[in-house]
Write a structure and sequence with these properties.
homodimer, 129 residues, DNA-binding, binds zinc ion, two-stranded antiparallel sheet, binds manganese (II) ion, Arc Repressor Mutant, subunit A
Chain lengths: 129, 129
DNA sequence: CCTTCTTTGCAAATGACTTGCATTTTCAGC
DNA sequence: GCTGAAAATGCAAGTCATTTGCAAAGAAGG
């Protein structure tokens, strides 16, 4: 765990919503190169410290968003899903992920394996409706 | 409905899985410009003839995939969700979308409105496991 | 025909993300 | 501590899906 990785992970952990590479870069105070931020996020995801999803929004286009995953080995956090507001572009966490059971059924039905799934809502939050 | 739009929509309707702009372009036999294909897909989505989602895959990177939506006014097709195989990159349709009820609950709980949602599975199909 | 509005082709631009390469860190073993 | 190989980083250039400006081609209506 290098300094840059520790820093990025801490930023994700303290964030209350998914963060783009650019956001992490900025919060890191430009203390390292953007390319390093990208490589760092890849590392964190690959090693189970974070997960990501791509989301398209009219205003910001297509970007990858990252969230911390509580400690690869110890912690138990199931992964999370989010609602994204098209007005203020904030994220709101969606409660318990009920997709796993659906995935299980699908796996059996088709004799295949689902390694992960992506789910998110798009709409307008109470402030922006 | 121009000729190019009709052609693109027909391609989406005949496809048994989501198509990228490049795929539509190619199937159209390069009969029109790629830029036109993009504009056409935007048109189809905006007017309820198609829907899309962005998906990231190691091999093809981040791309937008389109599917036909049975006829904006008449047809009744609820939208669909897909499983994407990381081995052969084929898509398999996931049965009935059970996310709407989840979205409804979320709307009430947070007093907001969910206009759409994105859900897909990633994994390996029976041929590729 | 003629005018006006929309669509298209072509080429250049955009922007998120990736990569090659030279330089710096990290860190295990001495 | 010192040393060398392996891993990480900065910087700059590249990639690639997607978008956009603009002028030419079509469509619609009178
Ligand atoms: Mn947004
Ligand atoms: Mn794929
Ligand atoms: Zn909002
Ligand atoms: Zn497969």
């Amino acid at each position: 765990m290098t300094k840059a990785r520790e820093a990025a992970l801490e930023i994700l952990r303290n964030a209350d919503e998914p963060q783009t590479a650019a956001a992490v870069f900025q919060q890191a105070g430009n203390s390292c190169d953007l390319a390093t931020v990208y490589r760092t996020l890849h590392y964190l995801e690959k090693h189970g410290y974070a997960e990501s999803f791509v989301l398209y929004c009219n205003e910001h286009g297509t970007e990858r968003y990252y969230t911390a995953l509580s400690s690869g080995n110890s912690g138990s956090s199931a992964h999370r899903h989010w609602f994204h507001c098209e007005g203020c572009h904030r994220f709101i966490e969606i409660g318990n992920c009920t997709v796993n059971s659906l995935a299980k059924e699908f796996e059996i039905e088709h004799n295949l394996s689902v390694s992960r799934h992506i789910l998110y809502f798009i709409g307008r939050c109470s402030d922006c409706r």
